[in-house]
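anyone seen this seq b4? input:
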Amino acid sequence: MPFWRKSTHTLTNILSIKTALFLINADKRERERERNLLDKIHSDKNNAQDSFRTNSAYCTNLAKKPHKILAQKTHFGYFDFDKNAQNPKSPLNPWAFIRVCNEAITLKSCLESILPAIQRGVIAYNDCTDGSEEIILDFCAKYPSFIPAKYLHHIEIHAPKAQENMLHNYYNFALSFIPKKEWLIKIDCDHIYDAKKLYKAFYLPKKSYERLVQSRINVCVKDRQIFITKDQNGVDGFFSVGADYVMLFNKGLHFNVWFPDKECKRFLEVLHYRPARLSYQIEMTNYHFPLIKNSRASGNENAIKNAFSLEQVCKSDLVGTRIDPELLDENKILEIYDNFDWSKANYKKP
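predicted toks r here
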């Protein structure tokens, strides 16, 4: 080989090695910067405004480069068996859209239940006084693909003083951290999810105009007896199919204020989106424990008076079609119930 060709070949190799080293070092620097930002979020609890600004910068950085999130793999799940689930644009890899306000009793159980199905998410929280914030920050430190997002304004359902005190603005704040044209799924922290069934449902949507609508049963417990509360709009009077418990593509989404009563006394939220979506109602994937949180526990007695027993629900035609019989196992439900953090309750465990 001529000398000049050898020199060119050697120079090319040297440049390739230098380029590779540069990219490796750049990636290390980027990861180190992201770790420092996340550490700052978790440690800076004394200055809420600084924490908010740092948190926003971290979320914005990850939103611009979603592949960085997947590079920081911290947990394993059903998504590891399909390489398509590593694509941030795939419905197999949705963002968990989570909002929290004093959910400490059920919060950790809920978050851990979704881990085998969901790789990443945003956990927005506000007005937390029961230890929920500490649970969220600890969880996000352990699983950094989940991002904490503290909302600094007090939410007022009745007669809010300003726009920032309205619930729909808080929801839009949480939504702002999820990249456009990627999938998201609404997760509520008084729900416990069957991760296998949840992940299986992610295979249903194929187009961006399709959405999944989740179904659930509402569970109450007293003296080791399990009750399923009635839902006047539900199938068979108890099986709830909530239009707002959805998984959908993040395009044209926006929350607006919603007045559920004629007197307009409550300022709630409703999700608007364009274009319209084709809906798939999926099998039951979760249990809802609506009366566990401290602010609602007083309603447990009244809810049980008119509720179905677990035995009655097991006789429904929905069992074996839209409800897996295994999900109605008494011991399984009681185990979930017992695993809640009852030390956070300000009432006696029913």
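The CA atoms of residues 91 and 183 lie 6 Å apart. Residues 74-344 form a domain with the Spore Coat Polysaccharide Biosynthesis Protein SpsA; Chain A fold (CATH 3.90.550). kinda curious what u guys think
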